[in-house]
Every structure is written in structure tokens, then in C-alpha cells.
Backbone:
């Protein structure tokens, strides 16, 4: 950073009206907390000198991302108005969506950025991370419900009629979760749907974790609704894929935090 920033400062000193020099200074310091104010001012100067260049607004947005999200969003929007195919601007807008908690909009943006520039790896990596986050945390609620119902079922006596009622409630909750999941899936753009399915098929950790969830839910449901003599065996059997799923979830979360999907 220091070398590129020093070179950019020297370029702006020698050619103070060269907007590319100010763009370089703005982008070189955007990732360093101590240099963000300097990067912000450099971005403003780049926009002042070249308001009709998309690169100036892109640099302003990059410099503002960690200081003022609204300013960054406006800058990226202007960069896209001037250059609608700017993959970096699309990607950075999606990053802002992700930071704001709108994971689905972020995934859609990363998909558009990847389409705009298929040679760029960063949007594709960000797309994988966003999809995994969206799908992974959508499953957490089902796991919590499973644990609660499994714990109650294991403590019930053989002749109790309660498991049948619990089974019906559990089946209703799972049905609602499936309907909501399908609705969310259908709202996704076609490209994202295909990518999500590919991720489930090809990623062993994420695919295995999803399969473990399905097996655990089926075994618990069978234990609650099936013959009383098999209840504890089926419920206990469901705990095995649950533990496997928890382990894979932790691995997936670790990979997600490090962007390794």
C-alpha cells in the first residue's frame, strides 16, 4: 500500500489536474483505515476533474464504502449510469446490499457482476458466499425445531399419546418451512437457481449438510408419527445425522467467514 500510495501522491503533485492520478490515490488507500480520509478527498477530486468518467465515480465509491454507505451507493450508481457494464460497480453495490443484510439482493448483484465480466473471479466468489449464507442460515430454524422436538420426544413414555400430536405439529412446521423455502427459491433469478443447485450437488460440505438435515427430519417425523415401539430408536437415529449436520454447519460457517466457498 505505502509504495502505491506514495507513487499516487507524487503523481498528483506533478500533475494535479490528472484525474487518473487522483483515481489511483483514492483506490490505493481505500482498504487502509488510516488512509481512508485521504482516499475520500482524492475520490472527490477525481470526480471534480472528470465528472463524466465512470472510473472517477467508481473510485469515489470505493473510497467511501467504509465511511459513508449512502455516498458510496450514489457514486456506484453514477458509475453505472455512465458505464452500465461496469462489473466492479455492480459488485460493490451488491457488497453494500450484503452489509445492509439484504443477502438475496446481494446475490442477485453478484450474479449480474459475474455475467458482466465472466473473467473476473471476485464476483463469482462473492456470489458463492452470498448463496451459501442465504441457504445456510435459512436452514438454522429447522435445526432448532428439530432439537426441541427430539428432546421432548425422548423424554416421553411409550404409551403417551403426545408424540402423535407432536408429530403432526412437527410435520406442519416442516411443511411451512418447505413452502417458504420454495417461494424464496422461485423468487430467485433463474441464473441464481441453477447456481444454487450446482452448489448443492458439487460442494461436499454444503450438500452433505443439507442431506443430513433431510435425513434427520425424516427420522424424527417417523419416530413421532410411527409405531410407539420404534419411537425412541428412530428419534435416537435422527440424532446421528443431526450431529453430522452440526459439524458440517460449523465447517461451512468457518469457510463462509473466510470466503472459501
Residues:
Amino acid at each position: 500500500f505505502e509504495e502505491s500510495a506514495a507513487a499516487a501522491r507524487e503523481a498528483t503533485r506533478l500533475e494535479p489536474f490528472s484525474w487518473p492520478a487522483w483515481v489511483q490515490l483514492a483506490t490505493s488507500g481505500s482498504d487502509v483505515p488510516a488512509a481512508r480520509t485521504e482516499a475520500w478527498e482524492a475520490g472527490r477530486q477525481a470526480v471534480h476533474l472528470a465528472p463524466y468518467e465512470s472510473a472517477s465515480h467508481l473510485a469515489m465509491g470505493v473510497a467511501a464504502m467504509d465511511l459513508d454507505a449512502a455516498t458510496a451507493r450514489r457514486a456506484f450508481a453514477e458509475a453505472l449510469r455512465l458505464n452500465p457494464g461496469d462489473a466492479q460497480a455492480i459488485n460493490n453495490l451488491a457488497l453494500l446490499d450484503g452489509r445492509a443484510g439484504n443477502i438475496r439482493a446481494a446475490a442477485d448483484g453478484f450474479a449480474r457482476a459475474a455475467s458482466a465480466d465472466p473473467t473476473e473471479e471476485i464476483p463469482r466468489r462473492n456470489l458463492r458466499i452470498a448463496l451459501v449464507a442465504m441457504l445456510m442460515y435459512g436452514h438454522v430454524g429447522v435445526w432448532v425445531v428439530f432439537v426441541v422436538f427430539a428432546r421432548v420426544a425422548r423424554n416421553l413414555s411409550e404409551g403417551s399419546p403426545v408424540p402423535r400430536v407432536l408429530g403432526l405439529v412437527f410435520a406442519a412446521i416442516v411443511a411451512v418451512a418447505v413452502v417458504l423455502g420454495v417461494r424464496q427459491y422461485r423468487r430467485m433469478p433463474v441464473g441464481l437457481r441453477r447456481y444454487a443447485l450446482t452448489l448443492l450437488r458439487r460442494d461436499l460440505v454444503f450438500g452433505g449438510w443439507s442431506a443430513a438435515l433431510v435425513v434427520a427430519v425424516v427420522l424424527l417425523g417417523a419416530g413421532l408419527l410411527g409405531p410407539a415401539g420404534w419411537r425412541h430408536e428412530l428419534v435416537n437415529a435422527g440424532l446421528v445425522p443431526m450431529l453430522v449436520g452440526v459439524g458440517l454447519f460449523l465447517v461451512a460457517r468457518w469457510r463462509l467467514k473466510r470466503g472459501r466457498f
Remarks:
- The CA atoms of residues 157 and 228 lie 9 Å apart.
- The longest helix spans residues 121-154.
- The mean pLDDT is 80.
- The chain has twelve helices and no strands.
